[in-house]
Amino acid sequence: MKIGIDLGGTKIECVVISEDHQIVFRERLPTPKGDYAATVNTIEQLVAQTLPYAPANTPVGIGIPGTLSSDTGTIKNANSTCLIGKPLDKDLALRLNRPIKLANDANCFIWSEFCDGAAKGTTNAFGVIIGTGVGGGLVMNHQLVNGLNGIAGEWGHNPLPHFKLEQQPCYCSKEDCIETYLSGPAFEKRFLEQSSTKTISPVNAEEIVNLARTGDSLAQKHLDTYAKMLAASLTGVINIVDPDIIVLGGGMSNIDELYELVPNYLQEYVFSDTIHTPIVKAKHGDSSGVRGAAWLWND
Ligand SMILES: [Zn+2]
């Protein structure tokens, strides 16, 4: 038995995974906004509910929107800012009185897909989150890579390559980060900017994609450019790591067209005459984060 927790910006999810990889318990509670103590309490409350399904000494894996700083032993790079500077793993180990492992949520995502999802059976896998933000995680030689600075896989805060566009500021204080072009909100914002003279004004990514499917040329071009920017951005990953597979997750990964468009555009950018890298959708969808947190205890 393993317990996984996905600490998200809006909800905290908890699962118990059985020996045969089945989720035998699942519960979600809202994330207390901006309140660290209440967040710890909520996690304790969720873990208490697992008792009928998993023994009291069952280890807990936690996926967080950030990472542990090796310098301070506290959380850094978290967009849930109340976590920053807090020793969450130590606080939870004390409170829950059991072993705790903590990892970045994008790392949990690819670890789940590597252990029993779309990347099962590979040796090196790269996981991409394209959702509200853009993140990533890397598995090399069957091991999840954390990195010296705890940021392995964070391709979303590299500058967008190959495109000369108007500079975009990123929340991380840098400019032109891939995230500012490839996140769901960026996809929506850029479309609205271009379509301001038109009468139609779709509000979300799904509607823009539906417009493209019904033949709207502006939406088609927008989706095509997005795929091209994604291909250009993944080129950095392929040229350096050359993974066996790239698994896409997050809301934007549900756009089926990407799985045809992106591999075609890779040819333009990757330093190789042939490119065999499969680009596939996550097998476990939104559940990969919480599953991967539980799988942190799978050596
Ligand atoms: Zn950034």
Outline the fold blueprint.
Blueprint: E1 2-7, E2 11-17, E3 23-30, H1 36-48, E4 60-64, E5 67-68, E6 75-76, H2 88-96, E7 100-104, H3 105-116, E8 125-130, E9 134-140, E10 143-144, H4 179-182, H5 184-194, H6 205-213, H7 217-241, E11 245-249, H8 258-269, E12 279-281, H9 288-295
Parallel strand pairs: 1-4, 4-7, 8-11, 11-12
Antiparallel strand pairs: 1-2, 2-3, 5-6, 8-9, 9-10
Helix pairs in contact: 1-2, 3-9, 5-7, 6-7, 7-8
The structure holds zinc ion.
CATH architecture of the largest domain: 2-Layer Sandwich
Instruction: Enumerate the distinct ligands.
Output: zinc ion
Radius of gyration: 20 Å
Q: N-to-C terminal Cα separation, in Å? A: 14 Å
Structure description:
It is built from nine helices and twelve strands. The protein has 299 residues and is of the alpha/beta class. It has two domains: 117 residues, ATPase, nucleotide binding domain (Nucleotidyltransferase, domain 5), CATH 3.30.420.40; 162 residues, Nucleotidyltransferase, domain 5. The strands form three sheets. The chain has a five-stranded mixed β-sheet. A five-stranded mixed β-sheet has the order 10-9-8-11-12, sandwiched between helices. Strands 5-6 form a two-stranded antiparallel ribbon. Helix 1 crosses helix 2, helix 6 packs across helix 7 and helix 7 packs across helix 8. It is globular. It starts with a strand and ends with a helix. Zinc ion (ZN) binds next to loops. This is ROK family protein. Keywords: Carbohydrate metabolism. InterPro entries: ATPase_NBD (IPR043129), ROK (IPR000600), ROK_cs (IPR049874).
